[in-house]
Amino acid sequence: MAATLVLGFDGSDCSKAALRHTAELASQIADATVVVVYAYEFAIGYVPTGMADSPLLMSAEFDEHSDLVRGYADEQVRQAAAELTKAGVHAETRVEEGRPVEVLLQVAEDAGAAIDIDIESIRPLRDEVAVVDGVTRISFSDDAAPQPGREAGSRFSAVVVKHDGRWMIESVRETAAPTVVRPRHGLDELDWLVGSWEDVGEGVTASTQCFWSAGKAFLVRTHAVTFDAPAAGRAVAGDGSIPGLLSPEAGKSREITEIIGWDPDRGQVRSWLFTSDGRFAEGFWTREGDHWVVRLEGRGADESAVCTLAVERVGSDEVVVRCEGDALVHLMPPACGFVRTARLAVPARP
């Protein structure tokens, strides 16, 4: 899925500067689309009878004014889109009536984008005037993310003035922050695993949760298999209702904790699996085309046992796990087709 950037634009010098920065950012993202949004609202007050010659005339005047604003807005977003097209960036336009901040947030939410604002300092100039300095960062959900290893944003300096007890933005200056290119992390290609996954069969449920450790040094997965069918009707080995390589021991729920890391010496993804009954194994991950092959080697009591898993992503919210061999059946994560049931927040790598 291509990335979508949302730009609020009203034709002001500030928004024109934001347009230039947005075009620069979008040019760094493959197949990016910029949605140019002009949002406006009207404040309508009550006019008592006798204060105007004709309420109908007032209504007509309001409609005329509304049409003028709409026409102006259409022209502004059209010009902004033309500038983006000149820069080689695909652009779309929207003109919406409503509170500008709420409209922009809704458009951004629809596009799967989010803007984080970090305030670095607040410098009072006098009692009712201050300067706020900070950084904005743009993030995207899943496949809408920018190129791997890139983080982009902008720095801003805003002058705020206290008016009738409320702090209002008087002006904003924005400059493009340097694009930060961090070294590619070996686990970046497995970032899509983050979230909650589940496969429900007759009498058995297999679930997996995956999240980043602090600092994004490791991916942590927890696998659980629960049986809820009566003992007499519980599935047995070979029954299609039970996910592959689940131990057929009656009624025993299983939990497996898996830690996935990058081994810079081997240049390979590795994993370590620990079961709720104290057994453990080590995995070695290799990318083959559109799927991953995991060679599992038993440790401790299972020292000589070896088997293989294939992990394949199907679309953005499905994953299929297949297995070869059953030597480590008690240590295997569930081998079945999972559907994502929730997305988990991903902490930024420092």
Name of the level-1 CATH class of the largest domain = Alpha Beta
Q: Roughly what is the average pLDDT, rounded to an integer?
A: 76
Helix % is 10-25%
Fill in the CATH topology of the largest domain: Rossmann fold
CATH superfamily of the largest domain: HUPs
SS-based class: alpha+beta
Report the count of strand segments.
19
Tell me the domain tally. 2
Plain-language structure description:
This protein is α+β, with helices and mostly antiparallel strands and 350 residues long. It has two domains: 4-181, HUPs (Rossmann fold, 3-Layer(aba) Sandwich); 188-342, Calycin beta-barrel core domain (Lipocalin). Helix content is 17%, strand content 45%. The protein has three helices and 19 strands. The chain has helices at residues 13-26, 55-86, 100-111, and strands at 4-8, 33-40, 90-97, 113-126, 129-140, 150-151, 153-163, 166-176, 180-181, 195-201, 204-212, 219-227, 254-263, 268-275, 280-288, 291-299, 306-314, 318-324, 337-342. Strand 11 (204-212) and strand 12 form a beta hairpin.
